[in-house]
Design a protein that fits this description.
α1 packs parallel to α13 and α5 crosses α7. The chain folds into 2 domains: 133 residues, Rossmann fold; 183 residues, 3-Layer(aba) Sandwich (Rossmann fold). With 330 residues, the chain is α/β, with parallel strands linked by helices. It starts with a strand and ends with a helix. The protein has a 7-stranded parallel β-sheet with strand order 8-7-6-9-10-11-12, with helices on both faces. It is built from 14 helices and 12 strands. It binds (2R)-2,3-dihydroxypropanoic acid (DGY). The site of (2R)-2,3-dihydroxypropanoic acid (DGY) has 6 residues, from loops. The site of (2R)-2,3-dihydroxypropanoic acid has 6 residues, from loops.
């Protein structure tokens, strides 16, 4: 009998078809995010689970699903999964790094540019029929070329955004991260390591790309925003919760900083209503990785991992991007 797996959300049919070659597959036709009790109910008797970045996988779920052996996500961020608990339960976890790096960096750069040049704000003005004349400072924003980009979090996506800024737009790049890049990488990217306070004070355009964890919760709040230039922009493509959204809305309203671009929100898909009423912001619904080829590649990598973790296919026993491969070597 084929092992049973659960696909927690709608995904590309070809991804499901690949799984069906090896497993009894149950899908979530309604494509809603199941509350945990329902996810647990659906998981009974299943050996594998395909998830996105939203399903909460913790000790409660793992205790209730003793047959589970693999949890494979099509997202790179995995703050929704308690990896140590999975390891303790003998469950392999994988995420989907690399395949989305360049696409996500493209989008981060687009949000930063849109915030700097007030694209959303001016489009709303035009759509409201308020454009009746030329004026010398109409929606005058700030330049991106030649400005200082501050990158908070210098992992793969941070580096890809920094390269775009330095090589494509002649930006000066400064960054702050838990660990410093080696000198050669700093030189290739043209990035200078600074402490967090310097980053906030010197950046014309702050781009946030740190993973969410208890340590990065509200890494940017009212105090940090107050340290930034009044002409600065802030772009968050990391995770909701890294920025204090209420404090950001307040800072934008009072022009503590000039503008912001957000793709991620605390408590998403709900959005703090205060953010919806400030004009100087660009808001998108967590789509930074969403180009069709990249979303296909993310789903395909999750399938590769699930097959390998459950012992089938060319990588059997060696999931390409497992976060706790030690589970399989035990
Ligand atoms: C990720 O992969 O973590 C992105 O945020 C898309 O969900």
């Amino acid at each position: 009998m084929k092992p049973a797996v659960l696909v927690a959300r709608n995904v590309f049919p070809e991804a499901v078809a690949r799984l069906r070659e090896h497993f009894e597959v149950t899908t979530n036709e309604a494509d809603t995010l199941w509350p945990q009790p329902e996810l647990i109910r659906q998981l009974q008797g299943k050996a594998g689970l395909f998830i996105t970045g939203s399903e909460k996988i913790d000790g409660v779920l793992l205790d209730a699903c003793p047959n589970l052996r693999a949890v494979c996500s099509m997202a790179v961020g995995y703050n929704n999964v308690d990896v140590p608990a999975c390891t303790a339960h003998g469950v392999v976890v994988s995420n989907a790094p690399d395949v989305l790096t360049e696409t996500t960096a493209d989008f981060g750069f687009a949000l930063m540019m849109a915030a700097a040049r007030r694209v959303t704000e001016s489009e709303h003005f035009l759509r409201r029929g308020e454009w009746t004349k030329w004026s010398f400072d109409m929606f005058a924003g700030s330049d991106v070329h030649g400005a200082t980009m501050g990158v908070l979090g210098m992992g793969r996506i941070g580096q890809a955004i920094a390269r775009r800024g330095a090589l494509g737009f002649g930006m000066k790049v400064i960054y702050h991260n838990r660990s410093r890049l080696n000198e050669a990488d700093e030189a290739t990217i043209g990035a200078r390591y600074v402490d967090k306070a310097t980053l906030l004070k010197e950046a014309d355009h702050l781009v946030i790309v740190v993973p969410y964890s208890a340590a990065s919760h509200h890494l940017i709040g009212a105090a940090e925003l107050a340290m930034m230039k009044p002409t600065a922009t802030l772009t968050n493509i990391a995770r909701g919760g890294v920025v204090d959204d209420a404090a950001l809305a307040e800072a934008l309203r009072h022009h503590v900083i000039a503008s912001a671009g957000l793709d991620v929100f605390e408590g998403e898909p709900s959005v703090n209503p205060a953010l919806l009423t400030v004009p100087n912001i660009v808001l998108t619904p967590h789509i930074a990785s969403s180009s069709l080829p990249t979303r296909r590649a993310m789903a395909s990598l999750a399938v590769d991992n699930l097959m390998a973790a459950l012992g089938v296919g060319p990588n059997a026993g060696k999931p390409p991007t497992a976060l706790n491969p030690e589970v399989l070597s035990k």
